[in-house]
Amino acid sequence: MSLKAFHILFIVISSILCAGFGAWAVNEYLHFGDAATLAWGLGSFIFVALLLVYGRWFLKKLSGLNGW
To answer: Which pTM was predicted?
Structure first.
């Protein structure tokens, strides 16, 4: 597996894990009402959005390189 492919895979897996953690944290907030878990959940969803923006930028950058 090339370094480029690993980088894309890492971004995808990181996004999925962050979204899962965010969903878990929001669910915990709904059950227990702890504001800290809500903050962790919302921060996680923001990080997912940033990872997706970065992933899109990286794919655009790759399309300009030879070999991909």
So the answer is: 0.86
